[in-house]
Amino acid sequence: MATKTQYFQNVNQIKYEGPKSTNPFAFKYYNPEEVVAGKTMEELLRFSVAYWHTFTMDGTDPFGIGTMLRPWDKFSGMDLAKARVEAAFELFEKLNVPFFCFHDVDIAPEGNTLSETYKNLDEIVAMIKEYMATSKTKLLWNTANMFSHPRFVHGAATSVNADVFAYAAAKVKKGLEIGKELGAENYVFWGGREGYETLLNTDMKLELDNLGRFFHLAVDYAKEIGFNGQFLIEPKPKEPTKHQYDFDVATGMAFLQNYGLKDYFKFNIEANHATLAGHTFEHELRTARINGMLGSVDANQGDPLLGWDTDEFPTDLYSTTLAMYEILQNGGLGKGGLNFDAKVRRGSFEPEDLFHAHIAGMDSFAVGLKVAQKLIEDRVIEDFVEERYSSFTHGIGKDIVEGKTNLQQLEEYALQLGEIKNRSGRTERLKSIINQYLLTVVSE
Known about the structure:
Layout (H helix, E strand, L loop, with lengths): L14 E2 L9 E2 L7 E2 L2 E2 H5 L1 E4 H6 L20 H19 L3 E5 H4 L6 H19 L5 E6 L18 H21 L3 E4 L5 E2 L7 H22 L4 E4 L9 E2 L4 H10 L6 E6 H6 L4 H9 L4 E5 L18 H13 L8 E3 L12 H25 L2 H9 L6 H7 L5 H9 L11 H17 L1
Parallel strand pairs: 1-2, 5-6, 5-14, 6-7, 7-8, 8-10, 10-12, 12-13, 13-14
Antiparallel strand pairs: 3-4, 9-11
Helix pairs in contact: 3-5, 5-6, 6-7, 10-11, 11-12, 12-16
């Protein structure tokens, strides 16, 4: 189905033109057909556009009203929702992205009742399905917004109000049905209001138990309707609540293990959320990876000078390199992808800025992919790490790893030791090598 209206008339198909190109509407490093590590860039990176930041965000911040100029904003209500679908698929096709993501309220306005909301969703989902029939772009994941409306002031699955719990369950039920209908490869849970402001008025045990019950209900219903998408939890430590229960990957894993959910969930890891948790992006990716829980990625970055979720488009090549190192070591992202949960800056308000932002993000991860693969091929990091931990490959170290020793034997060994000598970790040397690889790949 062809797009009825052209919302980006000044932008043509974005193509790869190489590093020397000066065309602002061209990829410099992302070549979807280029083969890296045995797969094309498109297959490995699995880029996705976030419907909310790209088509519904208007630039409002705590200190000022919206600034964004969007040609579809001349409409309202369901007409606006339909115009956004047209604009979305025009952008998807001009960027040639394989995936997109959305919350339920992104694609259709809420009605006065839940039944009206369902009706609105059904109408827009049918329209999206029609567009998807002639588009390469698929649904990476969908989710239910259970944080914006005042009904969720005390949470959703962890609300003090059982009616809210039921309402949230209904939204997720509908979301799973939509996910199945549109062929979503994943379904995401982000607990923006699942947390607390103060323990003084909080029954933490009941709230966590209810959250566990809620997830089990979702698992059961997915099985009932035959929805085969991967369930994902997206960790975030704070904002909007003071403390959110899905603080980081480690906290999330403890929760899933405690409630018997580990076999059903993986993690959707966002770079900016890692920053807010006091971690690096690669720390969260590795924590998930080494535990077999890395599912998908929200690709953005935060501003280290600001203490909130700025959701900037990723342009830090060092960060994208280390992220892609983890993803490649994970064997890719499986059903997941790199979703640009990122918004243009408030001052970048023209429609064309949406393309500049996505081009920058896609190029940045393409560079990261190529550098990471070269580092892996040359065993740069692996050789450093193996040498650093070599004492555990023989002698007493090997006995420790293999469980062939006890405290008495270790004491006997330690009593015979003279001066213990450590070796330098050579952190600066390793970082300089990574810089060298990065600069070499970029200049090729």
